[in-house]
Structures are given as C-alpha cells and as structure tokens.
Amino acid sequence: MTGRPNNDHHHRNPLRPNAPKSERRPEDMAAERARLSGMRARRRLKDVPETRRRKLVERSLDLGLSSAPSINDRDISLFSRSLDPMFAGINTFLKSPYVENVSDTGRFDVAVVGVPFDMGTTYRSGARFGPEAVRRISALYDSYSPDLGMDLLEEITIGDAGDIFVIPANIEKTFDQVDLGISHLLDTGTFPVIIGGDHSIGYPDAKALAKHIDGRLGIIHFDRHIDTAVTTMDERMHTTHWSHATDLPNVPPANLVQIGIGGWIGNHSGVQVAEERDTTVITMADVEELGIDHVLDIALEIAWKDADAVYLSFDIDVVDPGYAPGTGTPEPGGMSPREALKAVRKVAQEGLIGMDLVEISPPYDVSDTTSQLGARVIMDTLATLVENGHLGKRLSPDQRADDEARRDREAGIDDS
Fold it and tell me: How many whole angstroms from its chain centre is CA 246?
C-alpha cells in the first residue's frame, strides 16, 4: 500500500531512525544554541570595526598601484603590499608592519622581535631559523578567531622589529645584545614578543624584564626540561638560564613555576638546583593527574605571590613531538596542542609583562607544523591579553562585558 507515512515517521531523521524525540522546548534549544562559543563569536564580529583592514587596502592600492583592467575586484593591487595573497610579500609576523627604525616601536602595542641564536644548544641545532619560520607560516593565519571572537588586526597594533644582532660564536656577548635589545623595547612602552632561538636567551630576557619593574618578577615556564643547571659543559647554555635568572635580586626562585617537566633527557643536575632553591616543578604526570586547569591555578598563585609582574616563557618541546617534531631536544609524553593553547590562555588572563617562544628548529619540522603551533601560542596569548584588558585601548574589560551582555539579550539569552 502506498501513501504518505504517518506523522511520527515523516518527521523522523532517516539517518537516526531510533533517536529519541526531544522533550525540550524549542526556545530552550534556541537559547542553548545561542550560548555556543562559535555563536557568541559570530555576534561579536558584528561589533568589530574594519577600519584598519580598510586602511590596509587603501595603502596597498596607493603603494602597489591599481590592478590590471581584467581584475573585477578593484581592492586588489598590482603589487602585493598588504595581507593578501598569504604566500606573497615580505615575511613579518602576521604581515604586520616592519619597524625598520626601532626607535618607532613605541607606536605599537606589541613589538615582535627575533633572536636567531642557537649556539646554546647541547644536541640538535637549527633554532636560529625559528624566527624566520614562525614569521613565514604566520602569514597562513587570518587575524580573526571564531574560537575567541577576537580580531587582532582591529583590536591592537603589532609591529615587527626584526631580529636582534646576535654573535653566533659568543654566548655572553649575545646575552648582552638581547638584554639591551629587549630593554629598548620596554623603554618605548611596547609589549615584547620574543621569538628564539634556543632557550639560553631566557636569562637575558628575564634580566631585561626584571629591570623594568619595581618589585618581583614571576616566571611561568613551559618545558619538558627543567633548565636550572648552573653550567653545562662548563658554559651557560640552554640548560642553565633559570639558575642565573633566579640569581637576579628581584627574580626569586619562589616565583619560578615550571610546567610539563619530565622524560629522560637533561634534568638531573637541574633538579638538584631546583631542590636547593625550592622552585616549583610541575611534571606531565601532575598535568595528567590534576588536569591543566588545576595545574594552572597552582602555577598562577605561586608565580604571582608578592610579584608585580609575570613573564611567560614557552619552550615548544613541552608539546609532544608527535605534534611538534621541529625542536632540538624532543621528549615524548608532552602536552597536546589543545592543552598547551588552553594553558597559555589561562596564564594570559592575569596579565604579562612579556613573553618568549623558543626552541623551534625548522630543519627537524614536518610541514611547518611546529612553527604553525608556535605562531598560535603567540596569537592566543595576545588575544587573551586583549580580551582581559591588558593590551590595547579600544574596549575596557567592563565595556566588553557590557557588550557581551547586550548581545546575549539580543540573542534571547537570560542568565540572571
């Protein structure tokens, strides 16, 4: 017998014939849908101006000339002078302006600087090419994140200050260069994002940052290796920076927190120093047992205790080499990218004085995956700083909260 099926079968999804019929009211389902982070981000995007993006297009047309008559989109220039195409143009981080005159870095909220130094490595070199690789692959990214509802291009200004002139044959002279270079950026009032290079630069980074605060500097350090030896092979290298940083008068060991430590490489003498100085060591076993949120609660409380500022130092080898193979001292069993990105976002919520990203070694990378993750670490950190009112001036945290509440009301969400 043919004919229209009964209503129950007619409205049933043929791909889920046994799915239970929802008893929730349509308005409840609509409200739940509206609370999804992707839907919130969609609503935020409506309120983000596109003034800077438009100015970039106009600048590109001015400097790069008008495109061929056959091109229908008249926003396309003849020579690439802006964000597109992603694979063209000069390599700067997120295609931000190149600050050739470093005296001008104070015009930007953020200054990205490379430290292409890897003479502090103890095994596989190549991290000197890290800044170049991160800049190049960062062009893959748009400035807008649907996860975070953040448009970095419109919210803050980023300038790329290029690279500090390192001295490949001399670690100590390179330390002096890095210390002075980062100090200059801080003097201009910009937020420094430092791309290494090997992790030995953590010492001069901390030294420069510590000089620019009146009180104590806390450090949150992500790594599989503890890096607190006093010397390695009779030198200060990428295994020794935190023992020397915590010798600085306002960088006490009590405010150094190291997250992700573990494995079988290079931690023996450093653990002894950590015991003597009573630093806080959080292993991957702790992360697995307690969860990344609880671990970060502990870390933030310790790093910020009686401190006036905190510095984030992120060694890419804290991420499992299955995800991030391009590093000099890989150690299996590290974080997943999702854990790592969640972790830096949580750190950034409280504010930072600066950050570094180190130990990306492109010769060992696969399809730029490690460099790409490194760029995301920077972008997620910056976006969270902006969201929480620590960077940029367009909206205060209160204004953001008010806007979010207004958008919720317009979407029919009432959480009162």
Answer: 24
Query: How many of the other CB atoms lie within 10 Å of CB of 409?
Result: 10
Contact of 193 with 135, CB cutoff 8 Å: no
Q: What is the DSSP letter of 146?
A: T
Structure tokens at 41: 């981000």
pTM of the model: 0.87
DSSP 8-state class, residue 198: -
In whole angstroms, give the CA distance from residue 288 to residue 267: 20
Q: How far apart are CA 314 and CA 316, in angstroms?
A: 6
Average pLDDT for runs of 10 along the chain of length 416: 50 58 74 86 82 88 87 87 82 94 94 94 91 96 87 93 93 93 95 95 96 96 86 70 90 96 80 84 96 97 96 97 96 97 97 97 96 98 94 78 81 72
Inter-axis angle of helices 337-349 and 292-304, nearest 10: 30
Nearest to 199 by CA among 114, 111, 299, 117: 117
- Please provide the distance, in angstroms rounded to a whole number, between the alpha carbons at the two ends of the chain: 54
